[in-house]
Amino acid sequence: MTERGIASILVVLLAVLPLAVNNQYVLFTLTSAGILIIAAMSLNLLLGYAGQLSLGHVAFFGIGAYVSALCSLGFEFYYGAESPLVVPSQPVWLALIWGIVVAGIFGWIIGKLAFRVRGAYFVILTIGFAQVSRMVALNWVSLTNGPMALNNIPPLSGWLPGYGVVPLSGRVENYYLVLAFGILAYWIISRIVHSRVGRALIALRENESLARSVGIKVTRYLVLATVVSAAMAGGAGAIYAHYVRVIDPDVFLFIYTVTMVIMVMTGGKGTLLGPVIGGLIFGIIPELLRHMVRPELQLILYGVAMILIVFFLPQGIVPALAKLGDRVRRKSKIGKTGVLKDSLTT
Amino acid sequence: MTVSTPTDLLEVSHVAVRFGGLVAIADMTFSVAPGKIVSLIGPNGAGKTTAFNVITGYLRPSAGRVLFKGRDLTQMSPPEIAELGVVRTFQRTSVFNACTVLESVVTALHLRGTTELLGAILRRASVVAEEQRLHSEAEELLDIAGLSHRADAVAGTLAYGEQRLLALAMALAAKPIMLLLDEPAAGLNPSETQKFMELIRNIRDRGVTVLLVEHDMHMVMSISDRIVVLNNGQMIAGGSPQEIQNNPEVIRAYLGEGLTNVKG
Amino acid sequence: MEQLLQHLLNAVVLGGTYALLGIGLTLIFGVMRVANFTHGELYTFGAYMAYALIGPLELNFFVGLAIAVMLGILLGIVIEFMLLRPLQKSDMDTTMLVTIGAWIALQNMELFGWGGVAKSVPHPFPTDPFVIGSVSVAPLRVFVVCVAMVLLVSFYLMINRTTFGIAMRATFQDPEVSSLMGVKINRMFTLTFAIGSGLAASAGALLAPVFVVVPMMGDLVTLKAFAVVILGGLGNIVGATIGGFVLGLAEELGAGYIDSGYRDAMGFILIIAVLLLRPQGLFAPRERTG
């Protein structure tokens, strides 16, 4: 079955789920998982397709959350002049777009800085960026409220048949909202990776010198990928802010980045479905474990899972299953034609 | 030493490359006329691959100029140079391991496309048409390289000779005016080498100038229109295969290498 | 002026331990080509072991520190043997992911075992500071900086004077050639990782009585160690030593004159400055591209 086929079936299943299971807790779990899955998809564009590990991806998520929350609440910006710049409260959807744009701008800056040199430098720079973002959120109290958190963030609004435009604060509405955003994110990434731009990214992941020799401007495409990835993570953060409606500096915690990385690696980096499959697994398992084990133990398991995946399933679940499917298909083909293809060994 | 004429496509003049105290190229000057197959030969360490790296922008020379159609390449990056039509292959086999053969060539057709981020996301009719055009161009190139039957194979799984053909097809995809081949026949068996030579002639006859670095002297002598001989990072001779074969200085350089090899 | 002197003094204390951390990390990178994200956890481990031995187990302070460092070396050997040796042929991204996994697992094991409450390590030094003019320094800090200096000097002697050190530098230059010359790569890697881990653990054990011990302290330390390494140029030992002191100075001055809330952001700011101005590190000659 093609990736698109599986994705469509998954969408249908997720779409009818609230009709079958009208359980608030299940919907809450899936909605939270869905938001992280969108962030994981954005990470996959960098890690899986361009081959660059961002270990501070949560910074873009958190920036999107804070910017969108602040814009929708209105804020005062003290920049040294006598009177602060007063930004009145913006419509929520406009605020969300601001969250996406600002996160994208930070992605551009980080990309420009890091891709003069790559690999370990990029990892360190992104980790550092996330740490500093958290420090700013904690210390710039006049803007962010510091550890006291930003409260009463308005929910996203939408048009519902029979109600007109209303704030979407219910579990079911938010579930469908996140599902719609998830489909949009998947669709955008799918379009990008199956285009000239995506091919350029894959080329530089596979062999940078060769990519340059055929005229691919590597740095340009890496920066582009970072911008798109950061903007998308920012979007996920903005949705999160309007969903939970409280944001504190803990949105910048390293563990969220780790969760995204694990989702991508488990599902299969560089595949469209990978982050979704990995995301469903690592979005749901912790909820199941929550009542049984302490959070530290859960994180120990995350760390161990990362090591085990590198050792035993380096490609992730989706490619492993695809290979299995291939093998089965090929076996039946061999029965018919007697031709053995030689790519089994890879 | 060489008389460069205004019709020369590539002029390498007084190029020097030094790493710290180490001199890779002392003072290199040669030129390549359009429409020819020109081979760079010389003993190991003569600076052939270094010269390739300088011409294609992978290495910045310490001194000297590289003019292609009168434009200086030394301050440009490899992709910019490729855009001008100077395209290379690599000494070690170099393909996109995880991509299929067809995908690899479509990827290498990068310069033949124009789609950018927004176009990719919106995917209007023009973008779809471009994709189709690139795919059919890729199929043509695979046909030229004789790899059509392997279009769906994963590049990393190809046999060695096939990978070299794929690398050539990808270089052609960048629509070179001048093609630099770094030891294309290394590791090929005689019949594969024969096929490769025909392919290179075919490429020249399509109007592409070929600059070749190769150790297989039989291949060099039978295919080249002109040969440039390097030794210790300096050009010591240039001319037709016959002239080179009878040049005393060339013979001395190669004998000299033989002697040091015996000693070492 | 006095204030500046005080900051400089504090910077030397901090810088010494940062240099220990940076050298260990840069050594592992240079010899093994591994970006080691467990580095901060070895620091944390050293600190907790010092706490356990000197606190609840009531060992002599100096004996406790020494044993804590040895345990750190042991943990390093275990990590190298179990996680890195099987991946010797893998690329840097793969080993990096494994060390990141180990980092997360180790950190949460600390949290699981010790709980989140900060621990303080008792020490035998008088709490009254030495006062010279308007500058004062706690005797404990004097001890820390002296031990750090002794460790730095012994490390340099080892690298430059012993056969092992010379073999290690050869591996630094070119692993393939040195393995042809008979350097046993496996043993070299284990020893390198053990030394790097020992240096990190000793930094942790030394600073444990100065600050407090918490499970999450390794995060910042890993980041700072990398900042030091990037400052000095990846794989440059002298650079990492100087980089350690530069970071210590930047943090002291930043906290003193700009905003104490952003003390820990200084490493990041320095990284950015280096990336912008001298990507090859402050003290490295331009790298060969040939």
Q: Can you walk through the features of this model?
A:
Chain A is mainly alpha-helical. Chain A has helices at 3-20, 24-49, 57-73, 92-114, 120-139, 141-144, 171-193, 196-206, 208-213, 218-244, 254-267, 274-289, 295-312, 317-337; strands at 75-77, 85-87, 157-160, 164-167. Chain A has a two-stranded antiparallel sheet with strand order 1-2. Chain A has a two-stranded antiparallel ribbon with strand order 3-4. The radius of gyration of chain A is 21 Å and the shape is globular. The model of chain A is unreliable at 335-346 (pLDDT under 50). Chain B is an alpha/beta fold and 264 residues long. Chain B has 2 domains: 1-95 and 176-264, P-loop containing nucleotide triphosphate hydrolases (Rossmann fold, 3-Layer(aba) Sandwich); 100-157, no CATH class. In chain B, α7 (190-205) links the parallel β7 and β8. Chain C has one domain (2-277): Orthogonal Bundle (ABC transporter involved in vitamin B12 uptake, BtuC). Chain C is 71% helix and 2% strand. Chain C contains 11 helices and 2 strands; from the N terminus they run ααααββααααααα. By secondary structure, chain C is mostly helical. Classes of the chains: A mainly alpha (346), B alpha/beta (264), C mainly alpha (290). The interface between A and C is large, with 39 and 43 residues.
